């Protein structure tokens, strides 16, 4: 499964109604740490799938979603389970931290 790109149009279906937990990366194209996190998420995705989905939300394109979840700094990772945010991590993290978040 590939990393999903989330918009307000598919957020409810792909994140809130997901049968499995979804780790969402709030990011922006101009953010250096966000760019560094990209390859880490790709590596982690192969280890977490199919039990966890990884998704990305570009905060510049999806300001409403970023505001809804009070994203103040990026990158921000939020783990959703059963449609609810249950864990949050702010800043660049290691692959081990991503795997740990995904297994909560």
Structure described in brief:
The chain is of the alpha/beta class. It has helices spanning 11-16, 32-48, 63-68, 95-102; strands spanning 4-5, 22-27, 53-58, 76-81, 84-90. The protein has one domain (4-103).
Task: Provide structural commentary.
This protein is of the alpha/beta class and about 100 residues long. It has one domain. It contains four helices and five strands. Helix 2 (about 30-50) crosses helix 4 (about 95-100). The radius of gyration is 12 Å and the shape is globular. It comes from Fusobacterium ulcerans 12-1B. GO terms for molecular function: protein-disulfide reductase activity.
How far do the termini sit from each other?
Answer: 20 Å
Radius of gyration: 12 Å
Counting H and I runs of at least 4 residues, what is the number of helices? 4
Which regions have little confidence, pLDDT < 50, spanning 5+ residues? none
Number of strands: 5
What topology, given as strand order, has the largest sheet? 1-3-2-4-5
| Class from secondary-structure proportions | alpha/beta
Order of helices and strands: EHEHEHEEH
Globally, the shape reads: globular
């Amino acid at each position: 499964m590939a990393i999903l790109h989330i918009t307000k149009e598919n957020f409810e279906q792909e994140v809130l109604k997901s049968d499995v937990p979804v780790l969402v990366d709030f990011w922006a194209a101009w953010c250096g740490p966000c760019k560094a996190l990209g390859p880490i998420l790709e590596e982690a995705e192969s280890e977490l799938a199919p039990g966890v989905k990884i998704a990305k939300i570009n905060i510049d394109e999806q300001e409403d979603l970023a505001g809804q979840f009070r994203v103040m700094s990026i990158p921000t990772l939020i783990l959703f389970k059963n449609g609810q945010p249950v864990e949050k991590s702010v800043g660049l993290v290691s692959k081990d931290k991503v795997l740990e978040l995904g297994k909560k």
